[in-house]
Amino acid sequence: MNMHKALLAALLIPLGATLAVAPAAFSATPPAPAVAPASADTAAPTGPQDAAAAAAFGFPEAALGRVAHPLRTTEPRGGLADLRPFGRMVGDARVVGLGEATHSSHEFFTVKHRILRYLVEEKGFRAFALEAPWSTGLRLNTYLLGGQGDLKQIMDEEFQGTYRWWNNAEYRDLLQWMRAYNVKHPKDPVRFVGDDGGFAGAELYDRVSAYAAAARPELAPQLTELYRGLRPATDAETYVNDYLAKPMAERKKLAERTGRAVDLLKQRPGTGADADAHAWAVQHATAIHQMTTLYAFDWDDPRSIPDAMLHRDRIMAENVAWWQQRTGDKIVLAAHNGHIALRTYVPGSYPKVQGGFLRDKLGGGYLSVGLTFDRGSFNAFGPDGGVRRFTAGPAAPGTAEHTLDRVRHRDFMVDLRHTPAAARAWLAAPHTVKNIGATYPGIADAPQIRLAQSHDVVIHLQQVKAARLLK
Question: What digits encode the pLDDT tens for the residues 295-316?
Fold first, then answer.
């Protein structure tokens, strides 16, 4: 494969690695030692950039400190009373997007686990959506609801390629908690949703075929022909690499065929008892078409990348919104900060992102929560394609994290929609942020974002460490 195909196959498919960003201070070293807690909310400027910020904005860290709420812990076990302010921030939202500034740091995963626990137990949330294929979600959901299969095997087989970052001890713990919850609440379970389009597993083809055989037998031969050669017979990583090796003309024809399959199923809507089964069959067929459409873009032409990324973020939003509207479940959505944001971090590559689409669809029913950190470690692919651990030093003066880390709490959450006037100008101004994807370094370095326009809520952590990968 040439450069663009290799980038897609190795980096882009699962996790939007083109968002990968890292400050120059990063290095492939063990985690930095702990440093002193964040400064008090009245800390004085310590350098020219701090002095310039103080002159322009006053002391935003002091103003934020007055409305920030401390986190008792980032670990999922124990009491949840400190998350009650977060519950008030959530309000009536039906989808809560929880971001991450790296794709593989322990605390980002455990904070999501802790918030999921709280929202399930206290706010009636009943689904966890992850930046993973729709078919992966179906397979994990089957395990979570009925215990079918072995969790380790499922994670090993589904979390391949760059999705491997999800094959970690932290997410295994989260999934085990979901399964235990469902054992205790079989009539009111928590479900799993995969919202991405990087792979379409065999489950999708089998479910569409089963529906056609039972309810639309006259369509079965046509669907079999349209899906000929598409149902995966290898592992996911091999399948995707082989698919991308096909000529562009062939990939375009495959996308046209899967589109015809969706149209065929839609021709006669289900009625009565068949309506729900029909809706799910159409959605499964749509997920297949989402993948083939993603790979029908010309990845050899850099000019096509923004259109491909627009497609990917749009379908992730559509899949989450479809699930929410079809089931009524309130959803915790886990993805990179750059995907759950209300506005794109990197407009040149990502014209519009999942969070923006969800805000359009759900209005105030969608809440965007960005997760930031000052320093620590993370796993990522290095320049040679190997998995490595990198360390980030303390945030540089002038960056968003440098100011956030000077708020008087070590780890905290703050509702950006309700802040003192002294903080609003700073939140509305552009500041550089850490935004590390599946590879380091990435192709878009140190984006500047306006926090108040990008997220509704920010959870800031002083220090993180690399997640524990299982394979």
Answer: 999 988 999 999 999 999 999 9
Strands 331-334 and 191-196: unpaired
Secondary structure in 3-state letters for 343-379 = CCCCCCCCCCCHHHHHHHHHHHHEEEEEEEEEEEEEE
| Distance of alpha carbon 275 from the chain centroid | 31
Query: Is residue 123 scored above 80 in pLDDT?
Result: yes
Distances from the Cα of 158 to the Cαs of 134, 165, 317, in angstroms?
Answer: 11, 11, 21
pLDDT of residue 300: 87
**pTM for the structure as a whole:** 0.90
Mean pLDDT over each residue of the chain, to the nearest integer = 89
Backbone region of residue 201 per phi and psi (left: phi > 0; alpha: psi in -120 to 50; beta: other values): beta
Cα–Cα distances in angstroms (integers) from residue 151 to residues 23, 109, 137, 239, 339, in the given order: 36, 18, 13, 22, 27
What angle is formed at CA 414 by the lines to CA 35 and CA 119, rounded to 5 degrees? 105
Q: State the residue for tokens 């039906």.
A: 94
Q: Count the neighbouring beta carbons within 10 Å of the beta carbon of residue 98.
A: 25
Cα distances (Å, whole numbers) of residue 232 to 1, 9, 136, 178, 263: 20, 16, 13, 28, 22
Mean pLDDT of 338-355: 96
Please answer whether residues 456 and 367 qualify as being in contact, where contact means their C-beta atoms are separated by less than 8 angstroms: yes
Number of H helices, E strands in the chain: 20, 11
Q: pLDDT tens-digit profile of 18-68?
A: 333 333 333 333 333 333 333 333 333 445 555 555 545 568 999 999 999
For residue 377, give the amino acid letter. Answer: S
Q: Which two tokens stand for residue 250?
A: 């062939």
Q: Is 94 helix (H, G, I), strand (E, B) or coil?
A: coil
Please report how many Cα atoms fall inside a 13 Å half-sphere around the Cα of residue 143, on the Cβ side.
21
- Report how far residue 227's alpha carbon sits from residue 223's, in angstroms, rounded to the nearest whole number: 6
Which run of H or of E encompasses 130? strand 127-133
What is the arithmetic mean of pLDDT over 161-170?
93
